[in-house]
Amino acid sequence: MAELYKIPLDCVLYDTMNFFTLFEATNESYLARTGHNKHGWYNLRRVGLALSVTKDVGLPLLHMLYHERQADAKLFPGSMTELVDRFLKLSRGSNRLTVVFDKGNNSKVNIQKAKEMNLRVVGSLVPSHYRDLTGVRLGLYDLEVNGKPVYHTVKEAYGLKLSVAVVYNASSYRRQKRSLLDKVRQFRDEVTACFESHESKPIGEIEQRLQDILHGNEHARYLKVQVTGRRYKTLSCSLDRKAYCDKLRTLGKTIIFTNDLDMPVEEMVNLYMSKNLVEEQFKQLNNPAFIAFRPIYHWTDTKLKVYALICVLALLVQIMNLRARMNGIVMSNAVLRVELGDILEVALIYSPSRVVKRITVLSNVQKQLFDVFNLQRYAPRKTELSLPLETMT
Fold first, then answer.
1. pLDDT at 388
2. Which residue blocks in 200-249 are alpha helix, DSSP H?
3. pLDDT, tens digit, 9 for 90 and up, residues 279-294
4. Which pLDDT belongs to residue 140?
5. Which of 213, 210, 212 is closest to 201 using CA atoms?
6. Is the bond preceding 149 in cis, omega lying within 30 degrees of 0?
7. Residue 367 burial (CB count, 10 A)
8. By C-alpha distance, which of 334, 335, 385, 337 is closest to 359?
């Protein structure tokens, strides 16, 4: 496929996702394990899927199954070794590979290993860990990429000199600021409600109740909470402006890095932003109307691996999208499926001895798709593309 459709293999996008299974708790499995997950289904055993796809086309190049408790950063070296081996076989070693990944794979070991393997890597840094970069005034953002101001510098991290670009998105800043304020207010209301419901109890018990709420909540750092008084108790719950302002400096900012100091800033930013393509592939795997990777109705690790292979192979539908784009038809895979699904063959029964098969009336886009994919070879011999749908009742 890479040779037939001239698909470039010099840049791949890498990310991970987890999927829940219906494994029984008594079933032995190395891959399916319980653990923390963002969906809240802590009772279900889950498996992780690491996926690499080609840039622009989104063609799956590598996938690996791993157990849920394995950190992304520890999985990265092994998956990169396999990815490089596969890349060298496909490209015959003619190009240098660029790998784009998310911040969950960051570690000194991984970045150093990428250097040893002669890989160009593009990733992102956690803004809250680099206050010196997020604290730079917007007036010093002297570059612009895709309409967004960018600050570029060279910084030492993970034991290497890295080219770093801080991209500021004003609309993301406003959205994140509103979200932060709403969540802080909701948490403050929760603290106030807890105090009011226990106001008659001893002050020590009230403070313990409040500590139970504050402990482990990510928004507790933005509030100063204090209970005073003995007989008539008072709650002081105010905004910690220093912590709040420190957080505001990180909002709307994406810190992108690469180990290739000669890479242009615009290329580095665009490569990282193209990472959304692999996330689109995960959406297709999660789509119950398309691939529906979850829930997984299998009971052994070997069957899980075969099932994952089949689901990843289903992502080759990207080739259909590529063929459509090569003919000037630009649309998402979801729209492509809908348009193709509306091309129907019907049987008109005039009498027990006379049945005529025809194609329903096609839109202009459907006519183009009909020609691009040569659907005529599946159609009845005498096809009337102009037959109105109303005449078939």
1. 47
2. 203-214, 241-248
3. 889 888 888 888 888 7
4. 93
5. 210
6. no
7. 13
8. 385
